[in-house]
Amino acid sequence: MDLDLKIHHIGYLVKNIDKAIEKFKQLGFKCVSETTCDEIRYIHICFMEKDGYVIELVSPYDSNSVVSKLMKQYKNSPYHICYLTDKFEETCIALQTGGGYVMVNNPLPAPALEGKRVVFLISHISGMIELLEK
Ligand code: NI
User: If you measure from the C-alpha of residue 98 to the centroid of ligand 1, how many angstroms do you get, rounded to a whole number?
Assistant: First the structure.
């Protein structure tokens, strides 16, 4: 299986996005996006970058957010790596049929990423990943 994936960002759960942005600035990160409100997932999102590493700060603002459950489990911590692919459908299928991944949700547009489709998949061996359409 040659998936030809490129790492796009590391998803990082935070309770308070404004305070988290300030903390990551102390470490040398710079904001590379505005803080966006994703009304599909009930989360605030901000992308930051340092030394070529991009993190996506994700903060749920409603208990109905799918991320709220993860927040209880992970607290403030990284929780997924997002991979960019120019073959979104094929890769999604290949990860399930040959890779042992299960889809967490159906592909949905991500407002914070120009409406490109994303899907989350989980493996009981390597955890959760996000796939982003190029
Ligand atoms: Ni992400």
Answer: 23
